[in-house]
Amino acid sequence: MEFRHESKVGATSDLIDRRGERRFKLEVEIQITSKSSGRLKGRTGDISQSGISALLREELTVGELVELDFTVPLGRVKIYAIVANRSAFRYGFRFAESRFVEEIIRPTCRVLGLEQYVSDGI
Fold this sequence. Notes:
Helix content: 10-25%
Low-confidence stretches: 1-17
Number of strands: 7
CATH topology: Thrombin, subunit H
Order of helices and strands: EEEEEEEH
CATH superfamily: predicted glycosyltransferase like domains
Shape: globular
Radius of gyration: 14 Å
CATH architecture: Beta Barrel
Number of helices: 1
């Protein structure tokens, strides 16, 4: 279940997922490599320390392990993830590699949080 909380930081950055992690707006192109569907392209919506969402035109199987390739403010990311859920064209992916989460995703969330905090006029 997702909750929206309006605040000075902004609704998107305050999205909270089931694990209680903040989500941060991240709208970039993403490439997904899937054994069942091949290479797909889409656009991300938000990111947290445990996963990322993306809009796709093609279908993926929930539960499948895929490789994600996208760019964050700290550089390019190639990481494995599980297709965690689907709602129409929006997919949720749960990161499957803890090393990359520690080295890239967690610092990215900190940078995005600061950027969004500043851009919202605080």
